[in-house]
């Protein structure tokens, strides 16, 4: 529980599927109640996905913030 604020709920789901010997892919969605405070519409909902090829990984997420617009987040990771 946060010390300086009210409690909030967060929930997320991920669906992962193998892509043969190439790697795996994932689709994700979630909801964070803390992000909805004072913002209308779909704020708090996130949608994204990722591809994992073993040595290379790409992740993407989209999150709306009501009148503030939306955020796109992308991450490219290398393993060595």
What's the short story on this structure?
This protein has 80 residues and is mainly β. Helix content is 0%, strand content 55%.
Structure characterization notes:
It is a single chain. The protein is an all-beta fold. It has no helices and five strands. The protein has a five-stranded antiparallel beta sheet with strand order 1-2-3-4-5, with no helix packed on it. Strand 1 and strand 2 (24-32) form a beta hairpin. 2% of the residues are buried.
- Net shape: elongated
Neighbour order of strands in the largest sheet: 1-2-3-4-5
Provide the helix percentage. Answer: under 10%
Quote the distance from N terminus to C terminus. Answer: 37 Å
Biggest beta sheet attributes: 5 strands, antiparallel
Q: Give the uncertain stretches in residue-range form.
A: none
Strand content: over 45%
The Rg value, from CA coordinates, equals 16 Å
Q: How does the helix and strand content classify structurally?
A: mainly beta
The total of helices stands at 0
- The strand count comes to 5
């Amino acid at each position: 529980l946060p010390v300086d604020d009210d409690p909030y709920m967060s929930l997320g789901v991920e669906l992962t599927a193998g892509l043969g010997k190439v790697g795996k892919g994932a689709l994700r969605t979630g909801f964070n109640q803390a992000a909805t405070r004072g913002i209308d519409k779909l704020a708090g909902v996130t949608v994204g996905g990722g591809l994992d090829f073993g040595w290379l990984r790409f992740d993407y997420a989209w999150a709306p913030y009501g009148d503030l617009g939306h955020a796109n987040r992308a991450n490219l990771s290398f393993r060595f």
